[in-house]
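Slide 14.
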Amino acid sequence: MKGEAIGIATFLIEGGQNLNFAIPVKYVANLLNESKKPKKKIKPALEPAPAPEAPAPAPSPEPVDELEKAKAE
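Slide 15: predicted structure.
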């Protein structure tokens, strides 16, 4: 053993005889390397999004189901 880290503890159950869960270091190393790469910049749209073709229908003034009818009475 060389004293190298093999994982990072992420979750612990104390009542389970100190049962621990860890993420392997190689996954964390890959994540760190990816986070150091330059990010692609996204330009905002110059025009607003198109409006929907038809407006949503208005709700019916009449009760739709039996429960609503009972509440109305």
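Speaker note: The first strand starts at residue 7 and ends at 13.
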